Amino acid sequence: MPEAQIQVPTQAVIEVAARPHPFREAVVTEVRPAGTTLRQIVADLIREPWLRSWAAVSVDGELVHPMYYVRPQGPEYRPKPGRRVTVTVVPQGEGKNTAAVILSAVVLIAAAAVTANPKILVAVGGLVGGGAATGAAIVAAGSVVSTVSVNRLLR
After folding, report:
1. Who's near 84: CB < 8 A, 6+ residues apart?
2. Which of 10, 19, 13, 11 is nearest to 58 (CA)?
3. Considering 46, 58, 96, 123, which has the largest number of Cβ atoms within 10 A of its Cβ?
4. Domain boundaries 13-89, CATH class
């Protein structure tokens, strides 16, 4: 009579791959026990709560709605064993609409182009009738506008 083979069950796990910060290239790969919720996985990987709202989470390539991992009192989502969970943080732009971002970029480029060549500003100062002093004031104002535009665009 042949001997019965006893198979020891392997631990049921979930594969996790994450890029927990939008400006760092580090990728974290780990294995989580079955039964772990997406909320637990995201909270452990993304330490800063404000970054969690920017997370994009997928299970085997299918995007999961944020209600399962952003809200503290939302429904639970427990991926089945053997699934692969991917977490990526994607900046959202603080709710600005696309037109505002494009307009900010155009203003930034125009201000940078004008302040890069002070001769243009001095010429404008000469046209206004103030000469070099007015041109210098216009150069300073152009520099301030350029800096403010850069800061506004990066916010």
Report:
1. 14, 15, 16, 17, 59, 60
2. 19
3. 46
4. alpha beta
pLDDT in tens, the chain (155 residues): 455 555 444 568 999 999 888 878 888 999 999 899 999 999 999 988 888 888 899 999 899 998 898 887 878 899 999 999 999 988 765 555 666 666 666 766 666 666 566 676 667 666 666 666 666 676 677 667 666 666 665 65
The residue type of 9 is P
pTM here? 0.54
Report in angstroms the alpha-carbon separations of 127 from 29, 118, 138.
63, 14, 12
Domains of the chain by residue range: 13-89, 98-154
| Residue 124 CB contacts under 8 Å (≥ 6 apart), including other chains | 135, 138
Q: What is the CA radius of gyration of the chain?
A: 27
